[in-house]
Specification:
This protein has 425 residues and is α/β, with parallel strands linked by helices. It has helices at residues 16-23, 76-88, 93-96, 108-121, 133-141, 156-173, 184-196, 202-211, 243-250, 283-291, 310-320, 388-401; strands spanning 3-8, 29-32, 41-45, 48-52, 65-68, 73-74, 97-100, 104-105, 198-200, 216-219, 257-265, 268-270, 304-306, 308-309, 324-328, 338-347, 350-352, 364-372, 378-380, 383-386, 405-409, 417-419. The strands form six sheets. The protein has a ten-stranded mixed β-sheet with strand order 9-7-5-2-10-1-11-15-21-22, with helices on both faces. Strands 14, 16, 17 and 18 form a four-stranded mixed β-sheet that branches. A two-stranded antiparallel ribbon has the order 3-4. Helix 2 crosses helix 7 (184-196), helix 4 crosses helix 5 (133-141) and helix 4 runs parallel beside helix 6 (156-173). It is globular. The termini are close together. It binds guanosine-5'-diphosphate, 6-O-phosphoryl inosine monophosphate and magnesium ion (MG). The site of guanosine-5'-diphosphate has 22 residues, from helix 1 and strand 3.
């Protein structure tokens, strides 16, 4: 059976968690393939609101096995908090959650290095979530990292010590005040918790599942415009957030991928620094932030808001090979007389509909077109028939993107979803 990949097409926070939670009953396995606790995936069901950071968003569905893949970076401290909460909700972690031995660990000193690096960057800071993501991936690619499987080895403590000593030297060079042993206790409490979880060779397990005909949903974090290669570099995260990242982050062959579900908001948001061509810094942007409750799920920071950006969205669909689109949060725009759409950029004096190489040092000025707004998305509650006004926006986007919008999310809750085009799974 093939794998379906679900990922964000913008700058993160598109509503991936919600859509995974909706789709999880169709799959036997949900597997996170990259990122770490910089992610905040929100689920709303049975009157509860839950934010997940490392654990896949299928964890509250009885049928699904959840796997934290090798491409993820794990902070044992935040993982412990998350697991304690999930257990308190009655989820049987022992049967529902597996962790890849090859997933790298985030050490307390990685978080300090993240802070020190941002301080040194000053005005040019990335606006990182400061969860140690960049430094942990740097140690991975620099071949210094510690992996979840290493906690099973006898000399784990010594290896931890050796790496923190290296970090202490770096922190001292960066003029960052570090006290030896800072954060160690909480880290080792997290390690104890990690020891109690099921560590697996997840690439072997997933390929077994594929052979057995099990259905797998690969869950991405962040968004395509934050991708280390294709995002607005250097204002990006440190992992591969695109479809290809599901192969390296889970150890599954590219040929196993069937549907690629690309999630986008009916408008755009970005949290942290970096270019955002269609950003609205006026009252309209404030209105979207207020109506959409656009504050970070992980850091609580206000999200920057703007109109939908078609050149960026087309680019994201292209590099991911999106087969099915899912639109979230159009309900937030209900009541706007007209909705802006960035159709092109003016870049170095020329109009273009293509994403330019460098929009950090040369601005991409948005060209906006305005379409009619809508009063309501559905004609009546309980009957998921789209209103005519809103349908106009959907068909307009489908034409512009040359792809069908298979899912329309009409609110944060699990039940608030319309499957416009049936996706076979
Ligand atoms: P993720 O990181 O992609 O999982 O997204 P976040 O959870 O960070 O942010 C999405 C926010 O929008 C969360 O608060 C969700 O509960 C909420 N949300 C998701 N879909 C919808 C929707 O269709 N309408 C509304 N109003 N809220 C939504
Ligand atoms: P989810 O999975 C939105 C942003 C940060 C910063 C940049 C680098 O919830 O969509 P990092 O901590 O990775 O060094 O930060 O990336 N960022 C996100 N923005 N949603 C996320 O995850 C994000 N994860 C990182 O704000 O600009
Ligand atoms: Mg989020």
């Amino acid at each position: 059976m093939p794998v379906d990949v679900l990922l964000g097409l913008q700058w993160g926070d598109e509503g991936k968690g919600k859509i995974v939670d909706v789709l999880a009953p169709r799959y036997n396995v949900v597997a996170r393939f990259q990122g770490g606790p910089n992610a905040g995936h929100t689920l709303e069901f049975n009157g509860k609101r839950v934010v997940l950071h490392t654990i896949p968003s299928g964890i509250f569905r009885d049928n699904a096995i959840n796997i934290v893949g090798n491409g993820v970076v794990i902070d044992p401290v935040t993982l412990k908090k998350e697991i304690d909460f999930i257990k308190s909700q009655g989820v049987d972690i022992n049967t529902h959650l597996f962790i890849s031995r090859k997933a790298h660990l985030i050490l307390p000193t990685h978080c300090l290095l993240d802070k020190a690096s941002e301080l040194l960057k000053g005005k040019g800071k990335i606006g990182s979530t400061l969860r140690g993501i960049g430094p942990a991936y740097m140690d991975k690619t620099g071949r210094n990292g510690l992996r979840a499987g290493d906690i099973e080895s006898k000399d784990f403590k010594n290896r931890y010590k050796a790496l923190t000593e290296k970090h202490a030297e770096l922190l001292s060079n960066m003029k960052y005040d570090y006290k030896e042993g800072e954060g160690d206790d909480a880290f080792f409490e997290g390690i104890e918790l990690l020891r109690s979880l099921k560590l697996v060779d997840s690439e072997l397990l997933l390929n077994e599942y594929l052979k057995d005909g099990k259905k797998i949903l690969a869950e991405g974090a962040q968004g395509s415009l934050l991708d280390i290669d294709f995002g607005s570099y250097p204002y990006v995260t440190s992992s591969s957030t695109i479809t290809a990242g599901a192969c390296t982050g889970l150890g599954i062959p590219p040929t196993s991928i069937r549907n690629v579900i690309g999630i986008f908001k009916a408008y755009c948001t970005r949290v942290g620094s970096g270019p955002f061509p269609s950003e609205l810094t006026d009252a309209t942007g404030d209105r979207i932030r207020k109506q959409g409750n656009e504050f970070g799920s992980t850091t609580g920071r206000p999200r920057r808001c703007g109109w939908i950006d078609l050149p960026a969205l087309r680019y994201a669909c292209m590099i991911n090979g999106v087969t099915h689109l899912a639109m979230t949060k159009p309900d937030v725009l209900s009541g706007f007389d007209e909705i802006g759409v960035c159709t092109d950029y003016i870049y170095q004096g020329k109009k273009t509909s293509v994403m330019p190489y460098d929009i950090v040092h040369h601005a991409a000025e948005p060209v906006f077109e305005y379409v009619s707004g809508w009063k309501a998305i559905e004609t009546q509650t309980g009957n998921v028939k789209l209103s005519n006004e809103f349908s106009g926006y959907v068909s307009y986007l489908e034409k512009q993107l040359n792809l069908k919008i298979a899912f329309v999310s009409t609110g944060p809750g699990r039940e608030e979803i319309l499957e416009k085009e049936i996706m076979s799974a």
